[in-house]
């Protein structure tokens, strides 16, 4: 088994890449995928710490995070389809109808 | 040997994560994301969590990514080469970099508690990871597990209603 810190660093790098993607991309689906990437980075932290501490609770939590991600995927993609039907685009810059 | 393997997997994971962010075409991003998910499944195997690796491949790389790829193909978005596909790159990169520095600083400076739980590698190999997870989930975490089903029901109803032509 590798050192715990190396897993945590990998997780931090993946999370930061996901953050950059969420902040810089225009396509809503790509932003969505970057959010999935961030969730996965957190999952890696959970599993690594769970294995290190010898406690299964972290891995149960990963299971719940996966459930939330699946629910989010279903609802989020339905929202994107509804938005595309209205605007013929899924750029986040076109989502401005409630902008003041 | 294992360190070398870890480094290779890390390299693949980080490069494919960067591809997710930088690719112009959403389909390429999705395929790179599948690659990242497989790398994470490999990490789970290395961390003695084979059930988590299986769920990672089936739920994430299977179900969720198929949903995303379906949506991309359903919407049939044209990749316009003249249009910019990202905005505020410098600002976003700076914020992401500071996130990385911050988390790395915390990881390097903090001390993790010593192992105190009952779980050992020997126990996982003897009883099986799936059995341990199942035992824990259906005894200690039974109520959260049941609430999960309500969450999924809400997601199903929400998706069906949102995707209808007329609300």
From TrEMBL, chain A:
Enzyme class, spelled out: translocase
One GO process term, biological-process aspect: ATP synthesis coupled electron transport
Name of a matching Pfam family: Oxidored_q2
Alphabetical UniProt keywords: Cell inner membrane, Cell membrane, Membrane, NAD, Oxidoreductase, Quinone, Translocase, Transmembrane, Transmembrane helix, Transport, Ubiquinone
Subcellular location: Cell membrane; Membrane
Membrane-related topology note: Multi-pass membrane protein
GO molecular function ontology, one term from the record: quinone binding
Description of how the protein assembles with itself and partners: NDH-1 is composed of 14 different subunits. Subunits NuoA, H, J, K, L, M, N constitute the membrane sector of the complex.
Stated family: Belongs to the complex I subunit 4L family.
Protein name: NADH-quinone oxidoreductase subunit K
Encoding gene (name): nuoK
Automatic annotation (TrEMBL), chain B:
GO molecular function (one): NADH dehydrogenase (ubiquinone) activity
Membrane topology of the entry: Multi-pass membrane protein
Pfam families: Oxidored_q3
Xref: InterPro entries: NADH_UbQ/plastoQ_OxRdtase_su6 (IPR001457), Nuo/plastoQ_OxRdtase_6_NuoJ (IPR042106)
Membrane-spanning parts: 6-23, 30-47, 53-77, 89-108, 141-163
Nuclease is among the record's keywords: no
UniProt keywords, alphabetically: Cell membrane, Membrane, NAD, Quinone, Transmembrane, Transmembrane helix
EC number of the protein: 7.1.1.-
Record has NAD as a keyword: yes
Name of the protein this chain belongs to: NADH-quinone oxidoreductase subunit J
High-level lineage: Bacteria, Pseudomonadati, Thermodesulfobacteriota, Desulfuromonadia, Geobacterales
């Amino acid at each position: 088994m590798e050192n715990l810190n190396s897993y945590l660093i990998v997780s931090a790098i993946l999370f930061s890449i996901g953050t950059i993607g969420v902040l810089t991309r225009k396509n809503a689906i790509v932003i969505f995928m970057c959010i999935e990437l961030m969730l996965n980075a957190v999952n890696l932290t959970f599993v690594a710490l769970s294995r290190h501490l010898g406690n299964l609770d972290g891995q149960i939590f990963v299971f719940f995070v996966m459930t939330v991600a699946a629910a989010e995927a279903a609802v989020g993609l339905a929202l994107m389809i509804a938005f595309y039907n209205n605007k013929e685009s899924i750029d986040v810059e076109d989502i401005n109808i409630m902008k003041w | 040997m294992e360190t070398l393997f870890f480094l290779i997997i890390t390299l693949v994971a980080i490069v494919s994560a960067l591809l997710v962010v930088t690719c112009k075409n959403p389909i390429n991003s999705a395929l790179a994301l599948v690659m990242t998910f497989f790398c994470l499944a490999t990490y789970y195997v290395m961390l003695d969590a084979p059930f988590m690796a299986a769920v990672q491949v089936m739920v994430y790389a299977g179900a969720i990514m198929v949903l995303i790829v379906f949506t991309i193909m359903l919407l049939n978005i044209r990749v316009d080469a003249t249009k910019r596909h990202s905005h505020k790159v410098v600002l976003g990169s700076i914020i992401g970099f500071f996130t990385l520095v911050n988390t790395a600083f915390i990881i390097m400076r903090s001390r993790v508690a010593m192992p105190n739980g009952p779980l050992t590698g020997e126990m996982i190999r003897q009883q099986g990871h799936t059995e341990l997870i199942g035992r824990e989930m259906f005894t200690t975490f039974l109520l959260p597990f049941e609430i999960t089903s309500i969450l999924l029901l809400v997601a199903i109803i929400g998706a069906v209603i949102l995707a209808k032509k007329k609300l």
